[in-house]
């Protein structure tokens, strides 16, 4: 039996990923594109055994319709899916997009006949780094060039600090926006990060690491701003790296590699067992991809490749195909315009 769950502790106890946490849902409620957050639970003999957090986004120009999104939840059984579909129909969802957490070595695909392969939102491939290893073991599994760059950054006097102030957040947002323009990719708005910070920071679920060079104040920017920074999520025993940015002027300091080594050390101090890099180079196999630089950096940090099941779309309405066509055209135009800048 499927029913709505209103207990944060019960939701978090069964969630396997930060995007399924109660706090993530509370954050997403504050973003303008989200119309509703629904937490559903599967009960067996009165005991809660699974939880799904579904986010309902507004469809532009069709205000009475939504798109249901279920990131990194458990794969529902056929009967569970039928009940979940009923909840989605009540919210007038055109379709349900599922990106399951479940994975198995050698068999990443999900055998679910009630859906079609969809376009992914989260990276299907990522890298897990085992934080139960010693610092020496973490370094030894990295690519030789990555270890060299870490030592070079230290030799050049790069200092990494955990800075969780509002000012540090604004500096991070600026670095990320500069990187987005330089690499020609799309990210979230500044308000998105501010709302995320406002909800996750009081729960100790988000952290900022900033890298400063020894004489950045004498650079062209004329300020003592960080030369690189990363945002980290923490949920249960996972530390996640979803976002990062850097100042291209100081790229020779090799700060990003040192930032990630310091992130691993922070994760160990927090009691985390796994560092999830939120994507791998498998998602970006060619150098003309705007994310190539991020994935190349990640590939040198060591760890193991993890493949999640393919994205599954479960259509409910004849509007599904037209919406997919419009979305494809929209992204084609956005990428074309980005290349012109």
UniProtKB/TrEMBL annotation:
InterPro entries, sorted: Acyl_CoA_acyltransferase, FEMABX, PG_Glycine_Bridge_Synth
UniProt entry keywords in alphabetical sequence: Acyltransferase, Cell shape, Cell wall biogenesis/degradation, Peptidoglycan synthesis, Transferase
Protein name: BioF2-like acetyltransferase domain-containing protein
Taxonomy, superkingdom: Bacteria
PROSITE patterns: FEMABX
PANTHER family for this protein: LIPID II:GLYCINE GLYCYLTRANSFERASE
A molecular function GO annotation: aminoacyltransferase activity
GO BP term, pick one: cell wall organization
Gene3D superfamilies assigned: 3.40.630.30
């Amino acid at each position: 039996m499927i029913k709505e769950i209103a207990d944060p502790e019960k939701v978090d106890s069964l969630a396997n990923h930060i995007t399924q946490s109660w706090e993530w849902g509370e954050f997403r409620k504050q973003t303008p594109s989200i119309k509703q957050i629904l937490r559903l639970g599967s009960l067996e003999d009165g005991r809660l055994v699974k939880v799904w957090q579904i986010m309902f986004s507004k469809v532009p120009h069709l205000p009475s319709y939504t798109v249901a999104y279920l990131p990194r939840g458990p794969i529902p059984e056929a009967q569970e899916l039928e009940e979940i579909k009923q909840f989605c129909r009540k919210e007038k969802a055109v379709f349900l997009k599922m990106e399951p957490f479940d994975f198995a070595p050698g068999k990443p695909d999900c055998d679910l006949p009630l859906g079609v392969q969809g376009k992914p939102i989260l990276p299907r491939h990522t890298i897990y780094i085992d934080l139960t290893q010693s610092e020496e073991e973490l370094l030894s599994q990295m690519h030789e060039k990555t270890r060299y760059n870490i030592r070079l950054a230290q030799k050049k006097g790069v200092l990494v600090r955990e800075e969780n102030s509002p000012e540090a957040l604004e500096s991070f947002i600026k670095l990320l926006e500069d990187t987005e323009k330089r690499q020609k990719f799309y990210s979230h708005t500044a308000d998105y990060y501010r709302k995320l910070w406002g909800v996750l920071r009081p729960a100790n679920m988000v952290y900022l690491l900033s890298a400063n060079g020894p004489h950045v104040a004498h650079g062209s920017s004329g300020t003592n701003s960080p030369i690189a920074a990363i945002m980290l999520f923490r949920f249960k025993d996972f530390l996640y790296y979803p976002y990062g940015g850097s100042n291209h002027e100081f790229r020779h300091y090799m700060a990003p590699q040192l930032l990630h080594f310091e992130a691993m050390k922070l994760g160990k101090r927090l009691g985390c067992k796994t560092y999830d890099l939120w994507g791998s180079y498998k998602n970006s196999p060619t150098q003309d991809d705007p994310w190539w630089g991020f994935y190349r950096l990640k590939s040198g940090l060591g760890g193991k490749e993890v493949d999640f099941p393919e994205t599954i779309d479960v259509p409910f309405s004849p509007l599904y195909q037209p919406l997919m066509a419009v979305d494809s055209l929209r992204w084609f135009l956005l990428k074309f315009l980005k290349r012109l800048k």
